[in-house]
Every structure is written in C-alpha cells, then in structure tokens.
Amino acid sequence: MSKLLITGCTGFLGGCVLSYALKKYNIKDILILSRTAGDYQALTRVQDNLARFGLSPEITGQLTDSNIIEGDLAQPELFLNNPCLNEVTHVINCAAVASFGKNPMIWKVNVEGTFAFAKRMSEVPSLQRFVHVGTAMSCLPEPGHNIKESLITTDDSEHIVDYTRAKAAIERKMHEELPGLPLVIARPSIIVGHSELGCKPSSSIFWVFKMALTLGKFMCNLQDKIDVVPVDFCAEALLTLTESENVKNGVYHVSAGPEYSVNFAEIDEAMAQAGGTKPVADSYSMVDMGYFMGIRKSFPTLFGECNERIILRAINLYGQFSRLNVTFDNTQLLHLGVSAPRKFTSYIDKCVDSTRGQSVTEMMACDFK
Ligand SMILES: NC(=O)c1ccc[n+]([C@@H]2O[C@H](COP(=O)([O-])OP(=O)(O)OC[C@H]3O[C@@H](n4cnc5c(N)ncnc54)[C@H](OP(=O)(O)O)[C@@H]3O)[C@@H](O)[C@H]2O)c1
Predict the structure, then answer these.
(1) CA 344 / ligand 1 centre spacing (Å)
(2) Ligand 1 geometric centre to CA of 211 (Å)
(3) How far is the CA of 273 from the centre of ligand 1 (A)?
C-alpha cells in the first residue's frame, strides 16, 4: 500500500497535482502538508483551491482533517515529529515561495525548511521516492540553446533573482548531503494556465504576455522561443515521475522542448485572434529599460491602478528571461510515456477568455507576494 504526501496544495501546481491524484488514488492514501492562515483552516484552503480546478464539492468533501498534516516550512520543527510522516512512501514536494519579489522567506522556506523536511523524509524507512519540484531556470541556461538536464554547478552569485538562487541551492544541498534520499528532481519550465480551464486556477505569468502586447514593445525579438507548459501537463508528469518504475534518481525537465515551444510572434497572433484585436507584430519594436523608465507615468492608464516601481521591476525581470530564447529538452520525460504537452498557442484562447475584464495589475498580484 502506498501513501502519497503532497505539499503546496493551496498553490497553482500543487492544487492541480492533488486534483489529479484524487482521481487516481484512494483518498485514504493521500496526505497533504498545508498551512492554516489565520481563521482560514488548512483543509478549507485546500478544498477551495481544488474548486478552482473544477472539482465538485462531492469530491473535495471527501477530504477530511485526517488527510492534512498542518505545517509551515518556515517552522519545520513544529510538524516534523508528526507520526503520520512515518507511513509515507512517496512525496511530491511542490511547496515553495514562488516569487520573483524580494521576499525574506525565500531562503528560509525554499532552502532551510525544505532541507529539514527532506532530511526527515530520508529517515522514513518506507519512503520510495521524493519528487522535488525545482525550476528549469535555476540552471542559468545559456541563451539560444535547447538545454539538457544536468546537476547544477553554477555560482550562486550569477542569479538574477533570489528565487532561482534558492532553488539551485536546495537541489545541490539535497544531492550532496542526503545521499540516502530517493530523490527525483522535476524541473518545470514556465507554467502558464491550464489547457482546459485557461487561467481560472491562476493567472500566474500570463499577465506578462498581456503586458508586453499592451506595450507593443518589449526586450525580446518576436522570433525568440519561449518554453511554456500548461499546469495539467505538469501535474500528470509529476505523478508519472512519482509512480513509474522506469524513473531513475536524477533530474527531469517538465517542459515543452523545442518541438512544443512557440515563439513570441505566434503568441502575438494567437492572443490577437482570441481577443478579436490586431497582432502587434507590424509595429513591434525591441526596447531596453530606459524606454520603460521614460513611459512609467502612463502605466496606470495602460495596466490599471498600479505601483510603477513594481511594474518596472516586473518588466526588468521578465524582460531578461524573455530574451533567453531557450527551450528545455523533454526527451527523458516523454520516454516515460508522458503525453506531449499542448502548445501554449493551442489553449491561449482559454487563458484570454478566463481573464477578460481583469487588469494586468490584478493578474500579476499572485507572482509578487
Ligand atoms: N509556476 C511556474 O511557472 C513554475 C515554474 C517552474 C517551477 N515552479 C515550481 O513549482 C512549485 C509550485 O509553484 P506554484 O506556481 O504552484 O506556486 P504557488 O501557486 O505560489 O504555490 C506555492 C505553494 O507553496 C506553499 N508554501 C509557500 N510557503 C510555504 C511554507 N512556508 N510552508 C508550507 N507551504 C508553503 C503555498 O502555501 P500557502 O498557500 O500556505 O502559502 C502554496 O501551496 C514551486 O516549487 C515552484 O518553484 C513553478
């Protein structure tokens, strides 16, 4: 009998993973690490998030407090002696402070707390697999390449954001200091929307495309490719990486790869079609940060009531990522039998529909916690 522990189930990816796991697993075989937020109970938070993935109250109502391990990775000492952890056979660790902002909790949670949790799980005799969700960007990809999986060797000082620095550090630390942990590192590329539900579960990162097309200018070339995958593809991939006997300890990209990635011109075309507008391609130009500094006073008109500094920071960060023109090789994952991901442009209409009426500022809040 297997017992699956999933973390991060109130979030975008973890919520989708749990929604798929509920279809596959006996409810008694699922444990969820989650936090209570004030009066908002951990179980209710998880159930409410599952509703965003279209799960009915009949299904979400099957979850009870017996499925929940209440815990905060910022204070792991408060939950690590929970005896329920001793029954776990498989872990999917989606929890993290997934923010490009300057958040002091990034290191505390994504490195220190995550390491304490992984160390505790490495001491559980029944543990067969620990799937840790990393991020493909943490390897500091060389621009213009299709990146193959490898362990991270880069210098921490080279990272643009604390988030990727921390994600790189925890991968290295678990690999070097926990040789007994049956560790599989799954590195998603850029997760945008759900191939059926669009941005109903989360508008994370989708707003960047909206913002760039509203501006009609950005830092990338329209022919540059970007490796985007829908969250439901990632969820299925993570369950395969958890269950498949053919998985080897090591690193797997959960990505579109060169074949299923699209370029910005294709995204522009698909967004225009879905929104009933004209593509910006004919008037598009590549600009640098100086241009955006100059037009900062027009941001509220373009994006809704906003903090100009946060918008400038967002343009700067995502602009640097957009120029990379990289894809992440997914051959290993597809060889396990995972179906190929839908191209972003094939479900962009659902993302456009599900965010109609929302301003860029409203959409971006989930990425700047
Ligand atoms: N989204 C992407 O494009 C992308 C790409 C590559 C990799 N990833 C990785 O995928 C994973 C999930 O990302 P996501 O986009 O789903 O992020 P998300 O929506 O922000 O969800 C993060 C989850 O982590 C939990 N968490 C945060 N701090 C915690 C703490 N101190 N203790 C316990 N749980 C905590 C959150 O719980 P609360 O609700 O209690 O805060 C939430 O459930 C992350 O590891 C991220 O690095 C994401």
Answers:
(1) 21
(2) 23
(3) 32
Rounded Cα gap, residues 96 and 134, in angstroms:
9
How confident is residue 369, by pLDDT bands cut at 50, 70 and 90? low
What is the spatial distance between Cα 325 and Cα 291, in angstroms, rounded to a whole number? 22
Go through the domains of the chain in sequence order and give each one's CATH number: 4-195+226-260 (3.40.50.720), 206-225+261-325+344-367 (no CATH)
Angle of helix 42-52 relative to helix 12-24, nearest 10 degrees? 90
Distances (CA, A) of 196 to 15, 35, 231, 276, 346: 15, 28, 10, 20, 10
Question: Under DSSP, is residue 109 helix (H, G, I), strand (E, B) or coil?
Answer: helix
Percentage of the chain beyond pLDDT 70 is 99
Cα(31)–Cα(3) distance, rounded to whole angstroms? 7
CA of 254 to the centre of ligand 1 (A): 16
Strand ranges (DSSP E) for 165-313?
A: 183-188, 190-191, 217-218, 225-226, 228-229, 250-254, 262-263, 285-286
In a 13 Å sphere around the CA of 339, the CA atoms on its Cβ side amount to 8
Q: Could you tell me which residues are beta bridge partners of residue 226?
A: 262
Residue 324 and residue 141 in contact, taking contact as beta carbons nearer than 8 Å: yes
pLDDT score, position 24: 86
Task: Give the pLDDT mean for 180-208.
Answer: 97
Work out which ligand 1 atom sits closest to the CA atom of 95: 24
- Backbone angles phi and psi of 187, in degrees to 5: -110, 100
Q: State residue 272's pLDDT score.
A: 97
Residue 365 reports pLDDT greater than 90? no
Rounded-to-integer distance, Cα 280 and Cα 270, Å: 11
334: helix, coil or strand? helix
| Ligand 1 atom with least separation from CA of 108 | 31
Atom of ligand 1 nearest to the CA of 113: 31
Of the CA atoms within 13 Å of residue 316, those in its CB half-sphere come to: 14
Q: Which atom of ligand 1 is nearest to the CA of 14?
A: 16
Instruction: Determine which residue's CA is closest to atom 21 belonging to ligand 1.
Output: 11
The CB of 13 under 6 Å from ligand 1? The reply is yes
